[in-house]
Design brief:
The chain is an alpha/beta fold. It contains eight helices and nine strands. Helix 4 crosses helix 5.
Length: 259
């Protein structure tokens, strides 16, 4: 089966008034259909930049990057992915259902199809009955779930998530981690997920990509041996702690690069 994402020698340099900023260098990675891939590394290591490159929000200056066998821009036009940002980004004057409908309206779906899809995705993220509420009437965690529903509404095969739970407290974050795993199991989506949390990366992922400080390089790619069904208690097991230790060692090794 062809890879969903294929990066070969990807580099990305931003030109600024103070000179070039080398965000990514020689990134090689393959993401297969159905993978849950977390990107972890220190701030400024290029995690979000790489995710944005997959989404055609940034353009690599070196190497090649394909999404579903086409350029990221062609994949964007083919509606291959949904994108969830760090902040929920819901319009306060639209209801939750109205926010979820927005991309469907832009894409020209019929009213009946919009309503059917909104109902389906709100059920997937456990927000049934909240469609008529406004964002300010929901908790931060519920708003982020609505943002995920919006990204799922047009049923793209790829879901890109840029540290969506970083601003939430640990209890809410644990709950949303559980719900995200359930959603992934129910939909079979391919997920790219940026995080700063080692436990979150290990708990969620089939594959963990460890990145070095700028310019961002991949120091390790860890294939998780954990089962797909993962209660929170799995975090106390030796297998989980062994993976977390390897991630921590990879982060430490990344600082040995001469940057």
């Amino acid at each position: 089966m062809a890879p969903v994402v294929e990066a070969r020698g990807v580099g990305l340099t931003f030109q600024t008034a103070d000179g070039p900023v080398h965000a990514l260098k020689d990134v090689n990675l393959t993401i297969a259909k159905g993978d849950f891939v977390s990107f972890i590394g220190p701030s400024g290591c290029g995690k979000t930049t790489f995710l944005r490159a997959i989404a055609a929000l940034e353009a690599p200056t070196e190497g090649s990057l394909t999404v579903n066998g086409m350029t990221p821009d062609a994949a964007r036009r083919a509606r291959a992915y949904g994108y969830v940002f760090q902040a929920a980004g819901l319009y306060p004057w639209r209801t939750i259902a109205g926010n979820v409908k927005l991309p469907l309206e832009i894409m020209g779906f019929s009213k009946a199809e919009q309503n059917a899809r909104v109902e389906k995705v709100l059920e997937l993220v456990e927000l049934t009955g909240f469609g008529k509420k406004f964002p300010w009437q929901l908790s931060g965690g519920m708003q982020q779930r609505a943002s995920i529903a919006r990204a799922l509404a047009f049923d793209a095969d790829i879901l890109l998530m840029d540290e969506p739970f970083g601003a939430l407290d640990e209890i809410v974050r644990d709950r949303l981690n559980e719900e995200l795993l359930k959603l992934w199991n129910n939909t079979g989506k391919t997920i790219g997920f940026v995080t700063h949390s080692i436990p979150e990366a290990v708990y969620l992922s089939t594959k963990i990509v460890v990145m070095s400080p700028r310019p961002g390089r991949i120091t390790d790619v860890i294939e998780s041996p954990l089962p797909r069904e993962r209660p929170l208690e799995i975090r106390d097991t030796p297998a989980f702690m062994a993976i977390a230790h390897r991630v921590r060692e990879g982060l430490r090794a990344g600082h040995s690069y001469d940057v």
